[in-house]
Amino acid sequence: xxxxxxxxxxxxxxxxxxxxxxxxxxxxxxxxxxxxxxxxxxxxxxxxxxxxxxxxxxxxxxxxxxxxxxxxxxxxxxxxxxxxxxxxxxxxxxxxxxxxxxxxxxxxxxxxxxxxxxxxxxxxxxxxxxxxxxxxxxxxxxxxxxxxxxxxxxxxxxxxxxxxxxxxxxxxxxxxxxxxxxxxxxxxxxxxxxxxxxxxxxxxxxxxxxxxxxxxxxxxxxxxxxxxxxxxxxxxxxxxxxxxxxxxxxxxxxxxxxxxxxxxxxxxxxxxxxxxxxxxxxxxxxxxxxxxxxxxxxxxxxxxxxxxxxxxxxx
Length: 315
Fold this sequence. Notes:
Blueprint: H1 3-34, H2 44-53, H3 65-84, H4 100-120, H5 124-155, H6 160-168, H7 176-192, H8 211-214, H9 220-245, H10 256-283, H11 292-313
Helix pairs in contact: 1-3, 1-9, 1-10, 2-9, 3-4, 3-9, 4-5, 5-6, 5-7, 5-11, 7-9, 7-11, 9-10
């Protein structure tokens, strides 16, 4: 472990923790512009977090310690997920842990804690949201694994750092297997981050909400951690997509100059990705919850087709 790798790791974590709310604010701004509405301030997520951290938490009398611990666990898991994804450099102390299966497992841990905490108080909305979240996770996680396995089979490694190194050193080309995997990953990202058409983060309608239903009982610093964790999850999925399909600009091992250029490149790619996400949400309509299994089954099928194309056609 060198000083450069430690600095790259700390810089990646700092950008993720501080930049995740900014990415959420940028997506909200772009969506408002596309819908011809007055856009909220770009720094509104930071103001919301500041307000929530300065408020007292109201906790139900029958809440167990799990209800209090869950926000800290979910936030810590999302920070760790952002840390093992090579967003700035492939020379990271956490690179040995940056395994595709371990990454999916981290997201599963956060989902389980959120669902258990939502059901802990015993409210109808919390239980409803937890059941819907587990349904989405049950269908989205296999599709995400197939996407990661498509890149792993092409590079002969399940390490995200090795995948980035191998892909970034190749000439730019549209690979059919990665194209199928990219479409599947976009569909999974929409579902996992509670975005339209699977969920609408701006609604509180009991018949449609998934993520919001699970955090209705939280307030104060606990709600702030949950909202911050949701922004970190969006940041993590965005970084995974950039690492798998647009790895150019990520610094290689022992490349200080590349590390300096990687930060503005990451910001530019996230800005483009956030605008694309807002465009997709604007052009899409919220689907019924009973159509979500079909949506995610389509993502799984596309990811499997990507693997088959790689093995059968070598492309």
